Amino acid sequence: MDLSPVSWAEGAWTTPPAAVAEDGTDLLVTCVEGSDAWRTTSYGFIHDTEHALVAPLPSDSAMEVVFTADYAEQFDQAGIFVVAAQDRWIKAGVEFADGHPQLGAVVTGPVSDWSVARADDLAGRRVRVRVSRAGDAITVRAAVDGGPLQLVRVAPFPADAEAAAGPLACAPTRAGLTVRFHGWWRGPADGSLH
């Protein structure tokens, strides 16, 4: 795949984290307690305090992030965020829920829809998450970094929307979560769905 690195400095925060530091080429993001992205469904609340470092994601392009899924408190999460509007976004990655790492995605437009699958093999590992934008869809894939990417979700996304995407970290239930991101890349959209 023909990917180019995206500089951490190229992104803009949707909500600034508690702290940000660079360690070599890695980015360390420390979350604010209560940070999250969710709209209405089942819980009845709207949270739009996610820490997402985003840069433009035009049509027919893709982005990837790699992070270490080294967290174990309820709803700790990291991955990638795609946003077109306050009520039109997707987050995908690894969220710790109900005692286990869960690989999944939340698709919002205008209310949230959450799909997850238990993924104990990702605990403490480097994880790569990829979003590919083509036509009227975002395709989400993920894997242990270095392994073959597996399909996580295909979700509707407006073809004509201006969108941005990049690394995401949230800590809905606690202070002190720091997520280590190892890289951020962009390139062409996937050639096919399968």
TrEMBL record:
The lineage of its organism: Bacteria, Bacillati, Actinomycetota, Actinomycetes, Propionibacteriales. It comes from the Bacteria. It holds the Pfam family DUF1349. InterPro entries: ConA-like_dom_sf, DUF1349. This is DUF1349 domain-containing protein. PANTHER family: REGULATION OF ENOLASE PROTEIN 1 (PTHR35332:SF2).
